[in-house]
Amino acid sequence: MSSFSKNRFRDNGPSTEAAAVETKTSMDETINRMIDIPSTSSSSNAHAHDASDMAEFIPSFTWKGPKHGYYFGTSKEYGTGYHLDEGGNKKRPNSSVRFSSTNEAREIPSSSSSKRQKLQDAQKTGDELLAEAEANLLKSSSSSSIGAGPPRILDLTQTGIQNATISLQRSISKNQMKRVQYPNDPSKFMESELHLHDEIMSWKSIATDLKLYPFLVGSGGNEKNVLQSFMSLLHHENSDVSMSVLNVLVELLDVSLLDNDSRKNEKEEEEERISMGMLANALINGGKLEIDGGNSGGGLDLIVSNLGRLINNDNDDLLSIPSEEDVRGIDDVFTIMEYLMDLDTMGILQDAAESTIEVTAGGGTKKIKGCAYQPPAISILRDTTLLPWLLKYVSYSNSKVQQKGGSSLKLHASEILASLLQHEEATRLHAKNLSMLPPFSSPFLDDEDDNENEKKKRKKKKKRKTVVDGIEYLLQSIAPYRKKDPETEEECETLENIFDALAASLFSCSLNVQPFLDAQGIELMLRCLREKVHAGGGALRVLNYVLSGNSSNGVGNAVVIKKEEVEEENADNNDATMVSMRACEQFVDAGGLKVLFPLFMGRGSAVPNPAKCSDGGSALAAKAGERLRKLRENDNTNGDDHDDDNEKKKNKKGLSKRERRALQARKEWLHNVETNSIQIMYALTRHLDDSSAYDAKARLLVKFVESDCEKCDRLIELCLKYSEKMRLKEYRYYRSDEAEEAENAGIDVDLAALHAKLKGGGDVFHRVGAITAFAAVGSRRCHEHIIEQLTVRNSGISVIKESIAEFAGMLEEGNQKSQLEYYLNTI
Known about the structure:
Blueprint: H1 17-34, H2 40-48, E1 57-59, E2 70-75, E3 79-84, E4 95-99, E5 105-109, H3 115-121, H4 126-140, H5 158-181, H6 186-201, H7 214-217, H8 226-233, H9 239-252, H10 266-284, H11 298-305, H12 307-310, H13 324-345, H14 348-353, E6 356-361, E7 364-369, H15 376-383, H16 386-394, H17 398-403, H18 407-421, H19 424-430, H20 452-464, H21 470-478, H22 489-508, H23 513-518, H24 521-530, H25 535-548, H26 563-574, H27 576-589, H28 592-600, H29 619-638, H30 646-653, H31 657-687, H32 696-735, H33 737-744, H34 749-778, H35 780-792, H36 798-809, H37 815-826
Antiparallel strand pairs: 1-3, 2-3, 4-5, 6-7
């Protein structure tokens, strides 16, 4: 749109009166041609043309200039494109003009009686709106420069920012007045719309000086600040104006602007962090600086509502294909949400909420205080309907996604979805039951429709569809990959994000587990594992979370939570154990033990294979692994001593960076398969008891006894392996500089060492010890075999006891700790 110069509408002032008349005529014809108004000289010829030799409809998603004998519009019969003009008998839809970056103007349906108009006008009459626009215009027009060209580059001073703020408000008032005066004549308000767009885009330059951000959220008197003006433009009738606001917000909130600069001192960097945090907090709170405790994040709701007019995913039968501008707008919405959550992770939002900045304005100084802190993830899930929109979008098939934005947009949507659901506090409070979500809502979904029957059908459909089943959408997203691998890297990353989102939702709240079981989620995960496809790795992770459950009932204190919400959350967590027991029983009944034990035993034929488009499954990883094995064989043959330094090892092996990365990805894949299978095994031993359905506990114990107790041999192998790994990690931590620095800083070194120990394999060691105790307590034969094999390996039952005692010592009082203490006393 920036290349769509306003000079096309401006009289350049020829020297003679005749030239002026000729220029004005040329300008009028240009405007008429752009908005598809036939000139007087050609309108009569258009009706005289013989329509019998012409096609009734020429499909076109964008307006590509006038076509002789056709009008551009959207109909129920043909869709969007050029329709044959049969003597003007067909009703042409009212239209407004949309500008693109390719010097084109294309028509979009008008929505003067839609919800977006109602929301913007706040149920005011036309006369009231006109009076308000004229009053605002008179109030802001202290000079006669309203019609002047907008500033292309902002004066990055306090005075320049204040003048630019006034100029922006004048442009908004002028455009508002023109639209109210001439609602059905785009040629009357087109110039002011172009002016407004350029005015908005000029604010991108303020991103070069983050210390000026407080002026965007602070204003004097009753005037709107810049951010509040931006918020009002997010519901502008021209979607290009709204998307320009989104684009500017993306530029201003870019977290890369906070990268350390050697030319800045710590004080300047901290000031920039606080300034960006103030802008982000004000955006979350709807552009306001001071809010009451009960205020919601209206700013995010305004942003998310624009998705309703950029992509219509509310109707599966009627597929709306977005333009490139729409796709960029949707990506900007996702990017804003991503930046806000990144700023929250960095701690900037909370720091800014507690800060005050003094700025000079109007010859004096004033203090700008940051808005109250609200975690973006909580605000998004609580105050917007973005979650159901994302869940439905990621469930689209690849062919449908190509028509609705492309695979890169689906990847970005899956990343936002995973980030939201992995915020445990937000999920427990506002996404505790994904199967009962409210549907996506936006004032832009219900545009004006001349067909009353279509209106009635839409209303009936909305009444029937009162909730969105997010669990079902996530399973639908995974189902296509139960037999095949992703074909591209983007597709592979999208699938991993969907698995992360599903696993997080099941772990955070037990209410999501039962809908998962009812939708045969366990059966789908087992199918992915049996087929040994890439989805098997994510399926194993999901099974780990759904069977293990989350016994934590602590509630974060980052935000104020009502007492009723705490009591309800505690009640949900009290049922978590019963839900996990049902999940374990269903896992056993679905044949999960036959799939799990080969993985637990480490048999390569049972391990799911990563996709070829991923690092771990690439041919490079296989090639590097083969080279590494040959080099190790040669080293062993020659008796070479290995250096403990990992970097020297890699240089000695002669592997390239790409080979090392692929080899590391393959190693991590196998490690995750092993640890997840151990976690699932422990969940089964923890939740199954003698009263479990389907004789689940007995069937599990039999597996440890059969084949001459070979599973017990594997338990001992894993127990000794992870015992050595965790002790090595603990030893290295005590010998590291990190421990010395922690001691000097007053940090408990023993506690830090315990963290390093658990991260280095201690967590898995504890669970392997508990599984071993389960087998030993449940079967005398297993008990005798375990003691015998430990003796053969120069060890003893004390290793198992040490594991269980350490594990129980870190747990609070409850069923899990009681079970471990029973093992400890029995073996």
